[in-house]
C-alpha cells in the first residue's frame, strides 16, 4: 500500500490536528423566547429543556450566555391573545415586549449582538407572517409594516434585524427605511431560503402562533426546490442583506452548501425547533446519545457551509465541553 487512510485517524491527537471543521462559541446565534411577567421560566412542552423567559430571567440568561462565549441572540416574543389584532398593531408598539427585551439584553450585556425577529405571526390572530385579507397573505402592505417594525427595533438598539416572513421585496424596503431613518449601522440577516417545513411545529407551540387557517406554502419555499434558493439569496443580497440564512438546517444541508458556493456574504443556518425536538425525544427514550447527536448535528451544519448557526442547543453544547 502506498497510503493508509487510517494513519490520520489513529489517535485523538492526530484527529484533532487534521479536523477540518471546528465549532466555536461565536458561531452560534441563540434564539430566545420572551414572555411577559416576572420570574418566569416556562418550559415549552414540545421543546424539553427550553423555556420562555420573562425580562428579569432574560437578563440573567444573557449574562450566562455571554459567560459561555455566546455573542449573538435572536429575540422572539410571545404575545398574549388580547394584544393580537388584524393590523398586528402590537408589532409597532414602542413600549411592546420586543422593545423591552432589546433594552434588557443591552442592559445585561451591552456588547451582546441583538438580533430581532421581524415577521407578523406572533402578533396576528391568524398566525400568518403577513397581513391577511380574506384567505390571502398580502405582500406589499405587509412589507410596509415590516419596514416600520425594523426601524423601531433598530431605534431601540437592535444591531441586526432578521426578517423571517418571506414576503417579496422586504429586504430592500427595510434597507431603504433604515437609511431614511439614518440607521446606517443596522444589519439585515435575511431568512432568504426559508422552506415551508413541518419542523417548525414546536416553535409555534412556544409562541402560540400556529396558522389559524391554511399553511405557509404561498410564501415559504417548496421543499422540492433547490435552484430557487439561489434566486432567493441573490435577490436578498441585491436588496441589501448582510447575512443570508437557510432554514431548516439538517434536512437542507445541500441548500446550505449551494448557497455557500454561490454568495460572498456570511451564510447562516437555523437548526429549528423540530430538529431540536427530534434529538430530545430520541435521547429521552434512550435511543440516541444526546450529547453525541447534538455535536454531530451541529458539525454537519457547519461542514455543509454555515458560518453561523442559530440553534436551541448552543448553551447545552458549550456547557458540555
Ligand atoms: C415565523 C418563524 C418561524 C420560525 C422562526 N420564525 C415559524 C414559521 O415560519 O411558522 C421557526 C423557528 C423554529 O422552528 O425553530 N416567522
Summarize the structure.
This protein is α/β, with parallel strands linked by helices and 321 residues long. The protein is 39% helix and 19% strand.
Write the layout of secondary structure elements.
Blueprint: H1 12-18, E1 28-34, E2 41-44, E3 47-53, H2 55-67, E4 72-77, H3 97-108, E5 113-118, E6 131-133, E7 136-138, H4 139-155, E8 160-163, H5 170-180, E9 187-194, H6 201-207, H7 227-239, E10 243-247, H8 253-262, E11 267-271, H9 273-284, H10 290-304, E12 308-311, H11 314-320
The structure holds ligand PBG.
Walkthrough of the structure:
There is one protein chain. With 321 residues, the protein is an alpha/beta fold. The protein has one domain: TIM Barrel. Helix content is 39%, strand content 19%. The strands form 2 sheets. The protein has an 8-stranded parallel barrel, surrounded by 8 helices. The longest helix has 17 residues. The two termini are 38 Å apart. The mean pLDDT is 98. Bound molecules: ligand PBG. The site of ligand PBG has 12 residues, from helix 6.
Amino acid at each position: 500500500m502506498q497510503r493508509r487512510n487510517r494513519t490520520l485517524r489513529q489517535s485523538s491527537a492526530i484527529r484533532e490536528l487534521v479536523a477540518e471543521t471546528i465549532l466555536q462559541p461565536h458561531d452560534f446565534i441563540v434564539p430566545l423566547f420572551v414572555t411577559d411577567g416576572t420570574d418566569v421560566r416556562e418550559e415549552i412542552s414540545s421543546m424539553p429543556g427550553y423555556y420562555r423567559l420573562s425580562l428579569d430571567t432574560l437578563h440573567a440568561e444573557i449574562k450566562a450566555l455571554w459567560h459561555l462565549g455566546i455573542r449573538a441572540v435572536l429575540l422572539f416574543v410571545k404575545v398574549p391573545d388580547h394584544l393580537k389584532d388584524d393590523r398586528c398593531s402590537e408589532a409597532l408598539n414602542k413600549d411592546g415586549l420586543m422593545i423591552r427585551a432589546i433594552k434588557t439584553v443591552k442592559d445585561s450585556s451591552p456588547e451582546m449582538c441583538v438580533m430581532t425577529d421581524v415577521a407578523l405571526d406572533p402578533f396576528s390572530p391568524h398566525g400568518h407572517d403577513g397581513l391577511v385579507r380574506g384567505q390571502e397573505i398580502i405582500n406589499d402592505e405587509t412589507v410596509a409594516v415590516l419596514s416600520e417594525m425594523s426601524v423601531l427595533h433598530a431605534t431601540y438598539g437592535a444591531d441586526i434585524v432578521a426578517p423571517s416572513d418571506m414576503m417579496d421585496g422586504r429586504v430592500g424596503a427595510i434597507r431603504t427605511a433604515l437609511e431614511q431613518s439614518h440607521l446606517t449601522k443596522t444589519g439585515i440577516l435575511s431568512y432568504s431560503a426559508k422552506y415551508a417545513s413541518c419542523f417548525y411545529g414546536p416553535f409555534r407551540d412556544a409562541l402560540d402562533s400556529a396558522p389559524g387557517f391554511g399553511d405557509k406554502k404561498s410564501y415559504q419555499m417548496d421543499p422540492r426546490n433547490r435552484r430557487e434558493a439561489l434566486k432567493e439569496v441573490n435577490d436578498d443580497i441585491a436588496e441589501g442583506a448582510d447575512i443570508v440564512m437557510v432554514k431548516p438546517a439538517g434536512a437542507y444541508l445541500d441548500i446550505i452548501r449551494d448557497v455557500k458556493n454561490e454568495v460572498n456574504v456570511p451564510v447562516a443556518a437555523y437548526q429549528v425547533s423540530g430538529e431540536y425536538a427530534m434529538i430530545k425525544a430520541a435521547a429521552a427514550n434512550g435511543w440516541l446519545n444526546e450529547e453525541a447527536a447534538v455535536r454531530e448535528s451541529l458539525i454537519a451544519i457547519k461542514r455543509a457551509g454555515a458560518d453561523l448557526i442559530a440553534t436551541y442547543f448552543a448553551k447545552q453544547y458549550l456547557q458540555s465541553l
